[in-house]
């Protein structure tokens, strides 16, 4: 690598709100998105909520000249909605579907049917290895009573782990997507602390867009004003995150977001705002990997957030086990009822009613069985994440045994007491 | 790293056949397995089919002195059955659950309920990074009519991709497990070709065990003789695979398998044979990573196996789509019947029969709906794997455009024609 090596990366991210039959003016918005991407000629455009594969195919055709490489991440029943258009050839592709992603019986929320995932694309740019990740986590339907919190925290951990383990030889890591988490939310902190990713909005000196970097704002007429009631100014849930490892440094020269309307005014491209970042990567052989330079005090935020996530997952596990136990009881009652109905038929008492009730009762037992199995698997999935967090905390404890940082000892001591 | 650095690794692998209430003499076998592991003091013991977490906890307690580190990979409804005991501290843990893993309605086969997975443990041994993977793929219930072939090929690809992307900074990669594939099976070849892993049985000069390295043999009295009918001598489906990357070389000094009975004669430990490998890792700075030294001819087996897998997945997709379409038709017929029943009730004709048939018919529609959704998701999952294979073939085609290897051009030309 030449000492004066530098690379400019222009990146676009948008949650496209592309649900067929539901999202307003979808085909018009997709058309305008294609025109805009062609005109701006970014290095990389990472999109979420492109639920229709046909929309992807149309975009791919339209963008084939400016972005010769494209990939659609297939997953679940509806699809992950993730896709990427790139000016540069894609060297490698892999995706990871999140183990936990809501509940199949919450049909009106639909997340379970999507198979939410994280997609990774590896690029080789002038000898530099870039790992670009795109993701979309479970939506938050109520901030006051968020029944999906444990799932989103688990997804954030799976995402962080996936990045951590697949980016060990990358020079630059880029993550774009709709995390469905506010910047200070538990999952967001967990992700940043475990991966060491930096938030473009917080890092850049040149930001153009809404205050606080909001990416869902009431000014956007596609946004449901009711959903934004608790946050009258808007929320920030879409991100451009990045890091460079040893030997390179990366900075965000500028970050721009649309402001409730299209990029050149007019109708918005989506109910989310688009993010456009210009990143600059430079060769810097003396730059150390920050994860190796953390002292005990530097590990404090990580330990604190790991502990918080561990506790939150514990609540999720208790909830999942409660539902599994409830479904188990329903199965028991249903089976008893079936025996009773058999008895009534055999005794020729209320025979018609018994025969009539037989099938719904079988349905009840089968339905409760499915609920039991689902929540058993949910509890196991959450336990798995909790065990992984516990392992990291255990490693930190071992490191702490060698250090004498009192605050660290206190935090880890608390965690040890809870295990 | 010192020039004369060398490391000896003693590894144990066993599919433990630990299904509560089903597997014979389970607790006795687990007890003897614990005694044996304690006595032999391997560096690493990787186990499959430890379905009961209680069995893992008992083993963990028993082995805590010899193997201070242990991990159980939780997954699915029953569990992945995978666990690891190690003499050395585990630095990092991650697992990946396979997207496709059989069918929920094949309850008697049960694989779907396990959430089959691959687990990764990262070790730091005297400055060397060892990535140890343990896995168990979908079982093969009939070799003549293997309805799970596409799923197993997809799992083999996911496994290969997971290893490929998570081991980029590892010095040594080790994979142990029950792959449920014979050595020349498509999935096995795909895995070896894409990861560059070597088969300990084929590499070692010192093998003690059954001819052809069989790991399920009729001599083992726990083995169902009916299952082994097509292979009267036995089959090899359990493996120790390994590779070292640039700067290191690895060899298998010896490989030993049990021979239809316990390690010191007597009752076998399982219906599978145990594998015990002694690996030797040496520092070898001049050793090149074989993946970088492949010429066009060296890529031929990879391309050939990628194409074969691509075709096999195509058959799986067609099958999945057929089932989804069939379920769709059943839903249509069921809905029509519901309308007819409503009509009969409204017209007061055969009212009792109509009411009686209402609920089973609703059940039929719901059941067919579930089958439709499942096979839609299956087709999407298989398409995803096929797209990833196609991407690799595309990259190979680009490389081939720069080369003039006629055999390679022929193979890639065939694939191009089929896309």
Tag the structure with descriptive keywords.
homodimer; 419 residues; alpha+beta; seven-stranded mixed sheet; six-stranded mixed sheet; 42% helix; 21% strand; sphingolipid metabolism (chains A, B); Sphingomyelin phosphodiesterase 2 (chains A, B); EC 3.1.4.12 (chains A, B); membrane (chains A, B)
Report on this structure:
The structure is a homodimer of 419-residue chains. The first copy, chain A, is of the alpha+beta class. In chain A, 42% of the residues lie in helices and 21% in strands. Chain A contains 10 helices and 13 strands. In chain A, strand 6 (117-125) and strand 7 form a beta hairpin. The longest helix of chain A is centred in the last third of the chain and has 51 residues, at 351-401. Residues 415-419 of chain A have low confidence and may be disordered.
- Please, what is the oligomeric state? homodimer
Q: What does the average pLDDT of chain A come to? A: 90
Residue fraction in strands of chain A: 15-25%
Element order, helices and strands of chain A? EHEHEEEHEEHEHEHEEEEHHHH
Helix segment tally of chain A: 10
Pfam families (chains A, B): Exo_endo_phos
GO biological process, one term (chains A, B): sphingomyelin catabolic process
Membrane topology (chains A, B): Multi-pass membrane protein
EC number (chains A, B): 3.1.4.12
Summarize the structure.
The structure is a homodimer. Chain A has about 425 residues and is α+β, with helices and mostly antiparallel strands.
